[in-house]
């Protein structure tokens, strides 16, 4: 079965379990089935993988897994191991298995670790010792944008293409860390690798690296035919609950064939009428030129629209207002 859903994989404040359970509800309502837990700010799955979460946290995570399982949503955990400490990784996997998780991503993103042999040794050992679990892999070079940084990155990527097991799944974000186009050209740097085994981690909506801009569209960046060739695809969340729920609902309509218009979708989600008229300003494909009349509408949104979503979007609306005043 295809795995379509989200990844909690952003930098910044951690979500609460109440928020995570709300996201699970949104996934269920939109017939999606996957949630990868991999926040960059959880030290116990990254730098301090050798240490345990608190008992209270573990109980909450177990309840989170149970809730997701009841809604037929698979929870996965992303773990960033030290290549010289397999024991801590194995202990962590066993811990999460005891809490109800049976899918794992071994992550080497954003680590500047280019020892591919040691990474694959760990990945292969996990695959061998945890046969009843599903395991995927994220290489240190997970986007075309990072390949040509220096000789180390070039050699790492060339070795990865030659040595990564062809029947296993790995994570890729496309031509850039935040890709504004996801189509067949995304795989150009991955020739001779099984197309269906590429799990797409989509950072299009992510706000952690550019706090003034928010990308949002009717998934105009994603080619539906390209998506159909993939067995795994997940959207990186923003950490803003109402925004993430809107994005998930938008994705649900997108994969369902866009049976309603974008305007109807936005009305269904109770967006302000002025914001609906200006939603093109959040599409990165459109050059950001704000007219005087558009700036007047932005000011009306800020002054007259009262909504939890408006509270989340305030910094981005305020930035647009400033751009319009220049």
What does the radius of gyration come to? Answer: 20 Å
> What is the average of the pLDDT values?
94
Helix content: 40-55%
Name given to the CATH homologous superfamily of the largest domain: Glycosidases
Alpha-beta content class: alpha/beta
- Lateral strand order in the biggest sheet: 5-4-3-2-1-8-7-6
State the end-to-end CA separation.
51 Å
**CATH fold assignment of the largest domain:** TIM Barrel
CATH architecture annotation of the largest domain: Alpha-Beta Barrel
Q: Count of helical segments? A: 11
**Poorly predicted runs:** none
In terms of DSSP E residues, the strand content is: 5-15%
Q: H/E element string?
A: EHEHEHEHEHEEHEHHHHH
- The number of domains is 2
How would you describe this structure to a colleague?
This protein has 326 residues and is of the alpha/beta class. It folds into 2 domains: 3-258, Glycosidases (TIM Barrel, Alpha-Beta Barrel); 270-325, no CATH class. The chain has helices at 17-29, 55-70, 86-98, 116-129, 151-163, 224-228, 241-255, 262-268, 273-277, 292-304, 308-325, and strands at residues 3-8, 34-37, 74-79, 103-107, 134-138, 170-172, 198-202, 232-236. Strands 5-4-3-2-1-8-7-6 form an 8-stranded parallel β-sheet, covered by helices on one side. Strand 4 (103-107), helix 4 and strand 5 (134-138) form a beta-alpha-beta unit. Helix 1 runs parallel beside helix 2 and helix 10 (292-304) packs antiparallel against helix 11. The relative contact order is 0.11.
């Amino acid at each position: 079965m295809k795995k379509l859903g989200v990844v909690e994989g952003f930098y910044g404040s951690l979500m609460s379990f109440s928020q995570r359970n709300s996201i699970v509800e949104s996934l269920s309502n939109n017939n999606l089935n996957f949630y990868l837990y991999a926040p960059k700010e959880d030290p116990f799955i990254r730098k301090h993988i050798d240490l345990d979460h608190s008992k209270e946290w573990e109980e909450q995570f177990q309840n989170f897994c149970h809730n997701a399982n009841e809604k037929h949503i698979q929870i996965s955990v992303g773990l960033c191991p030290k290549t010289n400490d397999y024991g801590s990784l194995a202990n962590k996997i066993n811990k999460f298995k005891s809490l109800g998780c049976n899918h794992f991503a071994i992550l080497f993103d954003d680590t500047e670790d280019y020892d591919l042999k040691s990474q694959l040794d760990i990945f292969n050992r996990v695959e061998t010792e945890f046969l009843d679990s599903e395991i995927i892999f994220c290489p240190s070079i997970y986007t075309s944008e990072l390949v040509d940084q220096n000789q180390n990155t070039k050699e790492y990527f060339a070795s990865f293409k030659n040595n990564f097991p062809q029947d296993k799944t790995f994570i890729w974000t496309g031509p850039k860390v935040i890709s504004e186009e996801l189509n067949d050209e995304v795989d150009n740097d991955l020739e001779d690798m099984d197309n269906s085994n590429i799990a797409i981690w989509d950072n299009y909506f992510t706000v952690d690296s550019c706090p003034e801009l928010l990308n949002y569209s009717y998934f105009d960046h994603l080619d539906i035919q390209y998506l159909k060739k993939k067995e795994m695809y997940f959207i990186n969340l923003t950490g803003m609950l109402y925004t993430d729920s809107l994005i998930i609902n938008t994705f649900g309509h997108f994969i369902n064939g866009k049976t309603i218009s974008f305007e109807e979708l936005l009305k269904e989600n109770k967006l302000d009428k002025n914001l609906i008229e200006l939603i093109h300003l959040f599409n990165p494909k459109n050059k950001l030129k704000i007219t005087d009349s558009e700036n007047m509408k932005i000011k009306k949104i800020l002054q007259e629209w009262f909504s939890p979503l408006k509270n989340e979007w305030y910094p981005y609306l305020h930035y647009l207002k400033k751009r319009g005043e220049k």
